[in-house]
Task: structure prediction
Amino acid sequence: MKQKRFNFKAKYLFAGVLALGLAVSCTDLEVEETDSINTAGFQGVVDPATFIDGVYNSFNGLIGNQADFFALSEVTTDAALIPTRGSDWGDNGIWRQLHQHNWQNDHAYITNVWNQFNGTQFAGSQLLSPLTTLTTEQRGDAQFIRAFGMFVILDNYGQIPVRDPELSLLEDPIVISGAEAVDQIIADLNGAIADLPALAPGSGEGNADSAHARASKAAARYLLAKVLLNKHIYLGTSPDPADMNQVVSLVDAIEAEGYGLVDGYFDIFRNDLDAETIWFIPTAVGNRIWNGLHYNMAPEIAGGGWNGFSTLAEYYDLFEGDPNINQLGSGQEERRGYVPTEGTPFTGEPGTTESGDFPGFESGSNVGFGFLIGQQYEINGNALNERGGAPLAFERDFVDGDGNSNLINNSEVTGIRVMKYNPRYGGFTNHEIFFRFSDAHLMRAEAMMRSGGDATSEVNELRVLRQAAPLGAVTEQDMLDERGRELYAEFWRRNDMIRFGQYTRDWELKDPSAVGDANLNLFPIPASQIILNPNLTQNPGY
Result:
Protein backbone atom coordinates (compact mmCIF):
# COMPACT_ATOMS: atom_id res chain seq x y z
CA MET A 1 0.00 0.00 0.00
CA LYS A 2 1.26 3.46 -0.82
CA GLN A 3 2.67 5.17 2.24
CA LYS A 4 1.14 8.54 3.01
CA ARG A 5 1.96 11.25 5.49
CA PHE A 6 0.31 13.97 7.48
CA ASN A 7 0.68 17.61 6.58
CA PHE A 8 1.22 18.89 10.11
CA LYS A 9 1.92 22.59 9.72
CA ALA A 10 -1.28 23.50 11.50
CA LYS A 11 -0.08 21.99 14.81
CA TYR A 12 -3.01 19.75 15.68
CA LEU A 13 -5.71 22.13 14.36
CA PHE A 14 -6.46 19.54 11.70
CA ALA A 15 -7.49 16.97 14.30
CA GLY A 16 -11.21 17.67 14.21
CA VAL A 17 -11.23 17.22 10.46
CA LEU A 18 -9.04 14.14 10.88
CA ALA A 19 -11.46 12.53 13.28
CA LEU A 20 -14.27 12.80 10.76
CA GLY A 21 -12.30 11.87 7.66
CA LEU A 22 -10.06 8.97 8.57
CA ALA A 23 -10.39 5.95 6.31
CA VAL A 24 -10.60 2.60 8.00
CA SER A 25 -8.47 0.49 5.70
CA CYS A 26 -5.20 2.34 5.06
CA THR A 27 -2.26 2.36 7.40
CA ASP A 28 -1.17 5.99 7.19
CA LEU A 29 -3.56 8.74 6.29
CA GLU A 30 -3.11 12.02 4.47
CA VAL A 31 -4.91 15.19 5.46
CA GLU A 32 -4.46 18.11 3.10
CA GLU A 33 -4.16 21.47 4.80
CA THR A 34 -6.55 24.10 3.46
CA ASP A 35 -6.99 27.77 4.24
CA SER A 36 -10.48 27.02 5.52
CA ILE A 37 -9.41 25.08 8.63
CA ASN A 38 -10.47 27.20 11.61
CA THR A 39 -9.93 30.45 9.71
CA ALA A 40 -12.92 31.99 11.47
CA GLY A 41 -11.91 30.59 14.86
CA PHE A 42 -13.19 27.47 16.55
CA GLN A 43 -16.96 27.66 17.12
CA GLY A 44 -17.47 24.29 18.77
CA VAL A 45 -18.23 20.92 17.21
CA VAL A 46 -21.53 21.34 15.37
CA ASP A 47 -22.46 17.65 15.13
CA PRO A 48 -20.84 15.83 18.07
CA ALA A 49 -22.47 12.46 17.29
CA THR A 50 -20.97 12.30 13.81
CA PHE A 51 -17.67 13.70 15.06
CA ILE A 52 -17.41 11.01 17.77
CA ASP A 53 -18.27 8.33 15.21
CA GLY A 54 -15.38 9.62 13.12
CA VAL A 55 -12.93 9.38 16.00
CA TYR A 56 -13.92 5.80 16.80
CA ASN A 57 -13.71 4.93 13.10
CA SER A 58 -10.19 6.34 13.04
CA PHE A 59 -9.11 3.69 15.54
CA ASN A 60 -9.73 1.06 12.85
CA GLY A 61 -6.64 2.29 11.03
CA LEU A 62 -4.58 3.23 14.09
CA ILE A 63 -5.04 -0.14 15.81
CA GLY A 64 -5.45 -2.40 12.76
CA ASN A 65 -2.20 -1.21 11.19
CA GLN A 66 0.88 -3.46 11.22
CA ALA A 67 3.17 -0.40 11.33
CA ASP A 68 3.06 2.71 13.54
CA PHE A 69 1.51 2.01 16.99
CA PHE A 70 1.66 -1.78 16.69
CA ALA A 71 5.26 -1.62 15.48
CA LEU A 72 6.36 0.65 18.33
CA SER A 73 4.57 -1.55 20.87
CA GLU A 74 5.70 -4.99 19.66
CA VAL A 75 8.52 -4.80 17.09
CA THR A 76 10.72 -2.78 19.46
CA THR A 77 10.65 -5.72 21.92
CA ASP A 78 11.72 -9.34 22.17
CA ALA A 79 8.29 -10.43 20.91
CA ALA A 80 8.51 -9.48 17.23
CA LEU A 81 11.01 -8.75 14.50
CA ILE A 82 10.96 -8.53 10.73
CA PRO A 83 14.10 -9.80 9.00
CA THR A 84 14.89 -8.86 5.41
CA ARG A 85 14.38 -11.88 3.15
CA GLY A 86 16.09 -11.14 -0.14
CA SER A 87 14.60 -7.77 -0.97
CA ASP A 88 11.37 -8.42 0.94
CA TRP A 89 10.80 -6.33 4.06
CA GLY A 90 13.94 -4.27 3.49
CA ASP A 91 12.06 -0.93 3.46
CA ASN A 92 15.31 1.01 3.95
CA GLY A 93 15.81 -0.62 7.33
CA ILE A 94 12.73 0.91 8.96
CA TRP A 95 11.67 -2.40 10.59
CA ARG A 96 15.18 -3.47 11.60
CA GLN A 97 15.85 -0.15 13.34
CA LEU A 98 12.92 -0.70 15.69
CA HIS A 99 14.02 -4.14 16.80
CA GLN A 100 17.68 -3.10 17.11
CA HIS A 101 16.87 0.11 19.04
CA ASN A 102 18.88 2.36 16.75
CA TRP A 103 16.02 4.51 15.48
CA GLN A 104 16.48 8.24 14.83
CA ASN A 105 14.23 11.23 15.51
CA ASP A 106 12.89 11.19 11.96
CA HIS A 107 11.73 7.55 11.95
CA ALA A 108 8.46 7.48 10.03
CA TYR A 109 6.52 5.24 12.43
CA ILE A 110 7.62 7.27 15.46
CA THR A 111 6.48 10.44 13.70
CA ASN A 112 3.19 8.86 12.61
CA VAL A 113 2.21 7.76 16.11
CA TRP A 114 2.99 11.23 17.46
CA ASN A 115 0.79 12.82 14.83
CA GLN A 116 -2.03 10.29 15.04
CA PHE A 117 -2.55 10.21 18.79
CA ASN A 118 -2.00 13.93 19.29
CA GLY A 119 -4.80 14.21 16.76
CA THR A 120 -6.87 11.89 18.94
CA GLN A 121 -6.34 13.88 22.13
CA PHE A 122 -6.99 17.20 20.36
CA ALA A 123 -10.25 15.83 18.96
CA GLY A 124 -11.24 15.11 22.57
CA SER A 125 -10.39 18.68 23.54
CA GLN A 126 -12.52 20.06 20.72
CA LEU A 127 -15.45 17.99 21.96
CA LEU A 128 -14.88 19.09 25.56
CA SER A 129 -14.71 22.79 24.69
CA PRO A 130 -17.45 24.87 26.36
CA LEU A 131 -18.45 25.86 22.83
CA THR A 132 -19.57 22.26 22.09
CA THR A 133 -22.88 21.00 23.44
CA LEU A 134 -22.72 17.37 24.53
CA THR A 135 -25.03 14.81 26.06
CA THR A 136 -23.77 13.02 29.17
CA GLU A 137 -22.72 9.95 27.17
CA GLN A 138 -21.02 12.09 24.52
CA ARG A 139 -19.05 13.82 27.25
CA GLY A 140 -17.98 10.42 28.53
CA ASP A 141 -16.82 9.45 25.04
CA ALA A 142 -14.93 12.73 24.69
CA GLN A 143 -13.16 12.29 28.02
CA PHE A 144 -12.21 8.72 27.15
CA ILE A 145 -10.95 9.76 23.70
CA ARG A 146 -8.78 12.55 25.09
CA ALA A 147 -7.44 10.36 27.89
CA PHE A 148 -6.60 7.53 25.48
CA GLY A 149 -4.74 9.84 23.10
CA MET A 150 -2.85 11.49 25.96
CA PHE A 151 -1.97 8.09 27.48
CA VAL A 152 -0.39 6.86 24.24
CA ILE A 153 1.63 10.07 23.84
CA LEU A 154 2.77 10.14 27.49
CA ASP A 155 3.68 6.45 27.49
CA ASN A 156 5.72 6.66 24.30
CA TYR A 157 7.18 10.19 24.38
CA GLY A 158 6.96 11.38 27.99
CA GLN A 159 5.45 14.80 27.19
CA ILE A 160 2.16 15.95 25.70
CA PRO A 161 1.58 19.12 23.67
CA VAL A 162 -1.82 20.50 24.63
CA ARG A 163 -3.72 23.07 22.58
CA ASP A 164 -6.84 24.92 23.63
CA PRO A 165 -9.00 24.74 20.48
CA GLU A 166 -10.25 28.29 21.09
CA LEU A 167 -6.77 29.82 20.96
CA SER A 168 -5.15 31.37 17.89
CA LEU A 169 -3.12 29.25 15.51
CA LEU A 170 -0.20 31.57 16.23
CA GLU A 171 0.01 30.31 19.81
CA ASP A 172 2.30 27.35 20.42
CA PRO A 173 0.70 24.45 22.32
CA ILE A 174 1.75 24.20 25.95
CA VAL A 175 3.50 20.99 27.00
CA ILE A 176 2.65 18.89 30.04
CA SER A 177 4.45 15.88 31.50
CA GLY A 178 4.90 13.98 34.74
CA ALA A 179 2.31 14.52 37.45
CA GLU A 180 0.46 17.21 35.50
CA ALA A 181 -0.06 14.89 32.55
CA VAL A 182 -1.01 11.92 34.73
CA ASP A 183 -3.48 14.00 36.73
CA GLN A 184 -5.16 15.23 33.53
CA ILE A 185 -5.53 11.69 32.17
CA ILE A 186 -6.86 10.40 35.49
CA ALA A 187 -9.37 13.27 35.75
CA ASP A 188 -10.67 12.54 32.25
CA LEU A 189 -11.00 8.83 32.95
CA ASN A 190 -12.83 9.38 36.23
CA GLY A 191 -15.20 11.63 34.29
CA ALA A 192 -15.59 8.95 31.62
CA ILE A 193 -16.39 6.32 34.24
CA ALA A 194 -19.13 8.57 35.60
CA ASP A 195 -20.60 9.50 32.20
CA LEU A 196 -20.23 6.44 29.99
CA PRO A 197 -22.87 3.72 30.01
CA ALA A 198 -22.44 0.51 31.96
CA LEU A 199 -22.10 -2.37 29.52
CA ALA A 200 -22.31 -6.01 30.49
CA PRO A 201 -20.39 -8.60 28.46
CA GLY A 202 -21.94 -9.30 25.07
CA SER A 203 -22.66 -12.40 23.07
CA GLY A 204 -23.10 -13.17 19.41
CA GLU A 205 -21.21 -11.66 16.51
CA GLY A 206 -18.93 -8.76 17.31
CA ASN A 207 -19.08 -6.23 14.48
CA ALA A 208 -19.07 -2.46 14.06
CA ASP A 209 -22.68 -2.26 15.27
CA SER A 210 -21.82 -3.78 18.64
CA ALA A 211 -21.77 -1.53 21.69
CA HIS A 212 -18.47 -3.20 22.62
CA ALA A 213 -16.85 -1.45 19.67
CA ARG A 214 -17.15 1.75 21.73
CA ALA A 215 -15.91 2.74 25.17
CA SER A 216 -17.92 1.92 28.29
CA LYS A 217 -17.47 2.22 32.04
CA ALA A 218 -15.51 -1.04 31.93
CA ALA A 219 -13.19 0.26 29.20
CA ALA A 220 -12.56 3.49 31.12
CA ARG A 221 -11.85 1.53 34.32
CA TYR A 222 -9.47 -0.72 32.40
CA LEU A 223 -7.54 2.24 30.98
CA LEU A 224 -7.44 3.97 34.38
CA ALA A 225 -6.03 0.78 35.92
CA LYS A 226 -3.39 0.74 33.17
CA VAL A 227 -2.44 4.37 33.89
CA LEU A 228 -2.21 3.81 37.64
CA LEU A 229 -0.14 0.66 37.22
CA ASN A 230 2.38 2.66 35.17
CA LYS A 231 2.08 5.93 37.11
CA HIS A 232 5.37 5.47 38.99
CA ILE A 233 7.17 5.08 35.66
CA TYR A 234 5.82 8.40 34.42
CA LEU A 235 6.71 10.12 37.72
CA GLY A 236 10.09 8.44 38.22
CA THR A 237 9.07 7.16 41.67
CA SER A 238 8.18 3.85 43.32
CA PRO A 239 4.72 2.27 43.09
CA ASP A 240 2.27 3.93 45.47
CA PRO A 241 0.29 1.33 47.48
CA ALA A 242 -2.78 3.56 47.21
CA ASP A 243 -2.54 3.46 43.41
CA MET A 244 -2.09 -0.31 43.49
CA ASN A 245 -5.13 -0.70 45.73
CA GLN A 246 -7.14 1.38 43.29
CA VAL A 247 -6.05 -0.89 40.41
CA VAL A 248 -7.43 -3.84 42.39
CA SER A 249 -10.70 -2.00 43.02
CA LEU A 250 -11.07 -1.01 39.38
CA VAL A 251 -10.61 -4.58 38.17
CA ASP A 252 -13.00 -5.80 40.85
CA ALA A 253 -15.58 -3.34 39.49
CA ILE A 254 -15.06 -4.63 35.93
CA GLU A 255 -15.53 -8.18 37.18
CA ALA A 256 -18.67 -7.17 39.08
CA GLU A 257 -20.21 -6.14 35.74
CA GLY A 258 -19.88 -9.74 34.58
CA TYR A 259 -16.52 -9.72 32.78
CA GLY A 260 -14.16 -12.57 33.55
CA LEU A 261 -11.79 -15.26 32.33
CA VAL A 262 -13.08 -17.66 29.70
CA ASP A 263 -11.99 -21.10 28.59
CA GLY A 264 -10.71 -21.74 25.06
CA TYR A 265 -7.83 -19.32 24.49
CA PHE A 266 -7.90 -18.94 20.70
CA ASP A 267 -11.69 -18.70 20.62
CA ILE A 268 -11.28 -15.30 22.31
CA PHE A 269 -9.90 -13.96 19.02
CA ARG A 270 -12.77 -15.08 16.83
CA ASN A 271 -15.49 -12.74 15.64
CA ASP A 272 -17.64 -13.33 18.72
CA LEU A 273 -18.33 -11.52 21.97
CA ASP A 274 -17.66 -13.15 25.32
CA ALA A 275 -16.90 -12.26 28.92
CA GLU A 276 -13.28 -11.46 27.97
CA THR A 277 -14.13 -8.70 25.51
CA ILE A 278 -14.15 -5.22 27.07
CA TRP A 279 -13.36 -3.21 23.93
CA PHE A 280 -12.68 -4.51 20.43
CA ILE A 281 -11.87 -2.55 17.28
CA PRO A 282 -13.99 -3.45 14.21
CA THR A 283 -10.94 -3.51 11.97
CA ALA A 284 -9.64 -6.26 9.71
CA VAL A 285 -7.29 -8.69 11.45
CA GLY A 286 -5.48 -9.53 8.22
CA ASN A 287 -2.33 -7.74 9.35
CA ARG A 288 -2.12 -10.11 12.32
CA ILE A 289 -2.39 -13.14 9.99
CA TRP A 290 -0.75 -12.61 6.63
CA ASN A 291 2.40 -10.72 7.56
CA GLY A 292 3.81 -13.86 9.24
CA LEU A 293 2.60 -16.64 6.97
CA HIS A 294 4.75 -17.94 4.13
CA TYR A 295 3.80 -17.15 0.54
CA ASN A 296 2.63 -20.73 -0.02
CA MET A 297 0.33 -20.93 3.01
CA ALA A 298 -3.47 -20.57 2.65
CA PRO A 299 -3.37 -19.33 -0.97
CA GLU A 300 -7.09 -19.92 -1.57
CA ILE A 301 -8.01 -17.40 1.14
CA ALA A 302 -5.72 -14.50 0.31
CA GLY A 303 -3.23 -15.72 -2.26
CA GLY A 304 -0.73 -16.72 0.42
CA GLY A 305 1.13 -14.90 3.15
CA TRP A 306 3.55 -11.98 3.13
CA ASN A 307 6.37 -13.82 4.96
CA GLY A 308 7.68 -11.11 7.24
CA PHE A 309 6.86 -10.97 10.95
CA SER A 310 8.46 -13.51 13.29
CA THR A 311 9.36 -13.85 16.94
CA LEU A 312 12.55 -14.61 18.84
CA ALA A 313 13.22 -18.16 20.00
CA GLU A 314 13.74 -16.82 23.54
CA TYR A 315 10.18 -15.49 23.53
CA TYR A 316 8.79 -18.79 22.24
CA ASP A 317 10.73 -20.57 25.00
CA LEU A 318 8.69 -18.74 27.65
CA PHE A 319 5.94 -21.29 26.96
CA GLU A 320 5.79 -24.87 28.22
CA GLY A 321 6.60 -27.52 25.65
CA ASP A 322 9.30 -29.02 23.43
CA PRO A 323 11.44 -26.15 22.08
CA ASN A 324 11.81 -27.74 18.65
CA ILE A 325 8.29 -28.91 17.86
CA ASN A 326 4.81 -27.54 18.45
CA GLN A 327 2.27 -30.21 17.60
CA LEU A 328 -0.57 -31.71 19.61
CA GLY A 329 0.82 -34.09 22.17
CA SER A 330 4.23 -32.42 22.37
CA GLY A 331 3.57 -31.14 25.91
CA GLN A 332 2.79 -27.54 25.00
CA GLU A 333 0.49 -25.28 26.99
CA GLU A 334 -2.69 -24.05 25.29
CA ARG A 335 -1.45 -20.53 24.58
CA ARG A 336 1.52 -21.81 22.58
CA GLY A 337 -0.95 -23.34 20.13
CA TYR A 338 0.01 -26.07 17.67
CA VAL A 339 0.85 -26.84 14.05
CA PRO A 340 -1.72 -29.16 12.37
CA THR A 341 -0.34 -32.03 10.32
CA GLU A 342 -3.46 -31.93 8.14
CA GLY A 343 -6.67 -29.95 7.75
CA THR A 344 -9.84 -30.13 9.83
CA PRO A 345 -12.97 -31.84 8.39
CA PHE A 346 -15.61 -29.29 7.41
CA THR A 347 -18.63 -29.44 9.74
CA GLY A 348 -20.35 -26.18 8.87
CA GLU A 349 -19.22 -24.54 12.10
CA PRO A 350 -20.20 -20.84 12.07
CA GLY A 351 -17.47 -18.63 10.69
CA THR A 352 -15.84 -21.37 8.61
CA THR A 353 -16.04 -22.26 4.92
CA GLU A 354 -15.38 -25.43 2.96
CA SER A 355 -12.14 -25.58 1.03
CA GLY A 356 -12.50 -25.34 -2.73
CA ASP A 357 -9.21 -27.11 -3.35
CA PHE A 358 -9.82 -29.85 -0.80
CA PRO A 359 -13.58 -30.54 -0.49
CA GLY A 360 -14.61 -31.88 2.87
CA PHE A 361 -12.05 -29.78 4.79
CA GLU A 362 -12.22 -26.35 6.38
CA SER A 363 -10.57 -23.70 4.26
CA GLY A 364 -7.33 -22.55 5.92
CA SER A 365 -7.40 -25.26 8.57
CA ASN A 366 -3.85 -26.34 7.77
CA VAL A 367 -2.65 -23.08 9.36
CA GLY A 368 -1.81 -23.54 13.01
CA PHE A 369 -2.55 -21.49 16.10
CA GLY A 370 -0.10 -19.62 18.28
CA PHE A 371 3.52 -20.27 17.34
CA LEU A 372 4.38 -21.98 14.07
CA ILE A 373 7.70 -23.84 14.10
CA GLY A 374 9.03 -26.76 12.09
CA GLN A 375 7.41 -28.39 9.08
CA GLN A 376 4.15 -26.88 7.80
CA TYR A 377 1.49 -28.92 5.98
CA GLU A 378 -1.15 -28.63 3.31
CA ILE A 379 -4.78 -29.44 4.13
CA ASN A 380 -4.42 -32.96 2.67
CA GLY A 381 -1.44 -33.68 4.95
CA ASN A 382 1.28 -33.23 2.34
CA ALA A 383 4.36 -31.40 3.56
CA LEU A 384 4.56 -27.88 2.16
CA ASN A 385 7.65 -26.56 0.40
CA GLU A 386 9.04 -23.06 0.16
CA ARG A 387 9.33 -21.45 -3.24
CA GLY A 388 12.75 -22.94 -3.95
CA GLY A 389 11.44 -26.46 -3.37
CA ALA A 390 12.99 -27.10 0.05
CA PRO A 391 10.72 -28.13 2.97
CA LEU A 392 8.71 -25.27 4.46
CA ALA A 393 9.99 -25.76 8.00
CA PHE A 394 10.21 -22.62 10.13
CA GLU A 395 13.48 -22.34 12.04
CA ARG A 396 14.27 -20.86 15.45
CA ASP A 397 17.16 -18.65 14.40
CA PHE A 398 17.76 -15.74 12.03
CA VAL A 399 20.81 -16.41 9.89
CA ASP A 400 22.09 -15.11 6.58
CA GLY A 401 23.38 -17.14 3.64
CA ASP A 402 26.70 -17.69 5.41
CA GLY A 403 25.05 -19.03 8.56
CA ASN A 404 25.73 -15.92 10.63
CA SER A 405 23.15 -14.42 12.98
CA ASN A 406 21.72 -11.53 11.00
CA LEU A 407 18.59 -9.51 10.26
CA ILE A 408 19.41 -9.27 6.55
CA ASN A 409 19.87 -11.91 3.82
CA ASN A 410 17.54 -14.34 5.60
CA SER A 411 15.90 -17.26 3.84
CA GLU A 412 12.15 -17.82 3.51
CA VAL A 413 12.00 -20.08 6.60
CA THR A 414 13.94 -18.29 9.33
CA GLY A 415 11.98 -17.33 12.40
CA ILE A 416 9.06 -18.78 14.36
CA ARG A 417 5.75 -17.29 13.18
CA VAL A 418 2.91 -15.99 15.39
CA MET A 419 -0.75 -16.77 14.63
CA LYS A 420 -3.18 -15.45 17.24
CA TYR A 421 -5.95 -14.82 14.72
CA ASN A 422 -6.52 -17.62 12.23
CA PRO A 423 -7.48 -17.52 8.54
CA ARG A 424 -9.90 -20.42 8.90
CA TYR A 425 -12.30 -17.95 10.57
CA GLY A 426 -11.92 -15.30 7.88
CA GLY A 427 -8.75 -13.79 6.51
CA PHE A 428 -9.81 -10.18 7.13
CA THR A 429 -12.55 -10.43 9.78
CA ASN A 430 -13.31 -7.04 11.34
CA HIS A 431 -12.77 -7.87 14.99
CA GLU A 432 -9.51 -7.08 16.79
CA ILE A 433 -9.44 -7.44 20.56
CA PHE A 434 -7.93 -4.40 22.27
CA PHE A 435 -9.03 -4.34 25.95
CA ARG A 436 -9.81 -7.73 27.50
CA PHE A 437 -10.32 -9.11 30.96
CA SER A 438 -7.28 -11.41 31.18
CA ASP A 439 -5.09 -8.32 30.97
CA ALA A 440 -7.17 -6.68 33.72
CA HIS A 441 -6.87 -9.89 35.76
CA LEU A 442 -3.08 -9.81 35.47
CA MET A 443 -3.00 -6.06 36.23
CA ARG A 444 -4.83 -6.85 39.46
CA ALA A 445 -2.34 -9.61 40.26
CA GLU A 446 0.59 -7.29 39.60
CA ALA A 447 -0.91 -4.53 41.74
CA MET A 448 -1.33 -7.02 44.57
CA MET A 449 2.32 -8.03 44.22
CA ARG A 450 3.58 -4.43 44.04
CA SER A 451 1.70 -3.53 47.22
CA GLY A 452 3.26 -6.40 49.16
CA GLY A 453 0.63 -9.07 48.63
CA ASP A 454 0.87 -12.59 47.24
CA ALA A 455 -0.37 -12.84 43.65
CA THR A 456 0.32 -16.56 43.23
CA SER A 457 -3.28 -17.78 43.37
CA GLU A 458 -4.41 -15.00 41.02
CA VAL A 459 -1.79 -15.95 38.43
CA ASN A 460 -2.38 -19.66 38.85
CA GLU A 461 -6.11 -19.22 38.28
CA LEU A 462 -5.26 -18.05 34.77
CA ARG A 463 -2.47 -20.59 34.22
CA VAL A 464 -4.65 -23.57 35.11
CA LEU A 465 -7.35 -22.30 32.74
CA ARG A 466 -4.69 -22.10 30.00
CA GLN A 467 -3.52 -25.67 30.70
CA ALA A 468 -0.17 -24.58 32.15
CA ALA A 469 1.38 -25.91 35.36
CA PRO A 470 0.70 -23.85 38.50
CA LEU A 471 3.59 -21.84 39.93
CA GLY A 472 4.80 -22.35 43.49
CA ALA A 473 5.35 -18.61 43.94
CA VAL A 474 5.25 -15.57 41.67
CA THR A 475 8.26 -13.30 41.29
CA GLU A 476 8.45 -10.11 39.22
CA GLN A 477 10.05 -12.12 36.42
CA ASP A 478 7.23 -14.65 36.60
CA MET A 479 4.69 -11.83 36.34
CA LEU A 480 6.34 -10.32 33.27
CA ASP A 481 6.66 -13.75 31.66
CA GLU A 482 3.00 -14.52 32.35
CA ARG A 483 1.92 -11.29 30.72
CA GLY A 484 4.11 -12.20 27.76
CA ARG A 485 2.46 -15.59 27.43
CA GLU A 486 -1.07 -14.29 27.71
CA LEU A 487 -0.87 -11.01 25.78
CA TYR A 488 1.53 -11.51 22.89
CA ALA A 489 0.76 -9.39 19.81
CA GLU A 490 -1.75 -7.27 21.79
CA PHE A 491 0.17 -3.94 21.97
CA TRP A 492 1.43 -4.26 25.57
CA ARG A 493 4.91 -5.83 25.40
CA ARG A 494 6.90 -2.55 25.31
CA ASN A 495 4.80 -1.05 28.09
CA ASP A 496 5.28 -4.16 30.22
CA MET A 497 9.03 -4.46 29.63
CA ILE A 498 9.59 -0.83 30.64
CA ARG A 499 7.56 -1.25 33.82
CA PHE A 500 9.61 -4.32 34.76
CA GLY A 501 12.92 -2.67 33.84
CA GLN A 502 13.73 -4.99 30.93
CA TYR A 503 13.20 -2.89 27.80
CA THR A 504 16.88 -1.97 27.73
CA ARG A 505 18.23 -5.48 28.30
CA ASP A 506 19.99 -7.46 25.60
CA TRP A 507 18.21 -9.79 23.19
CA GLU A 508 19.06 -11.47 19.91
CA LEU A 509 20.02 -9.04 17.12
CA LYS A 510 19.73 -5.93 19.26
CA ASP A 511 22.35 -3.24 18.65
CA PRO A 512 24.99 -3.76 21.41
CA SER A 513 25.32 0.01 21.84
CA ALA A 514 21.64 0.20 22.80
CA VAL A 515 21.86 -2.32 25.63
CA GLY A 516 21.41 -0.59 28.99
CA ASP A 517 20.53 2.79 27.47
CA ALA A 518 17.63 4.04 29.60
CA ASN A 519 17.09 6.96 27.22
CA LEU A 520 15.49 4.48 24.81
CA ASN A 521 12.56 3.95 27.18
CA LEU A 522 11.10 7.01 25.44
CA PHE A 523 10.97 7.64 21.72
CA PRO A 524 12.33 10.92 20.37
CA ILE A 525 10.05 13.88 19.74
CA PRO A 526 9.93 14.03 15.93
CA ALA A 527 12.46 16.52 14.63
CA SER A 528 9.80 18.42 12.69
CA GLN A 529 7.80 19.02 15.86
CA ILE A 530 10.74 20.38 17.84
CA ILE A 531 11.09 23.03 15.12
CA LEU A 532 7.37 23.84 15.08
CA ASN A 533 6.83 24.11 18.84
CA PRO A 534 9.59 25.66 20.97
CA ASN A 535 7.77 24.51 24.12
CA LEU A 536 8.82 20.93 23.32
CA THR A 537 12.16 19.67 24.60
CA GLN A 538 13.88 16.79 22.86
CA ASN A 539 14.07 13.70 25.04
CA PRO A 540 17.53 12.82 26.44
CA GLY A 541 19.83 10.87 24.17
CA TYR A 542 18.48 12.09 20.84
The radius of gyration is 23 Å. Residues 295 and 305 are 4 Å apart (CA to CA). Confidence is low (pLDDT under 50) at residues 1-39. The longest strand covers residues 277-284.
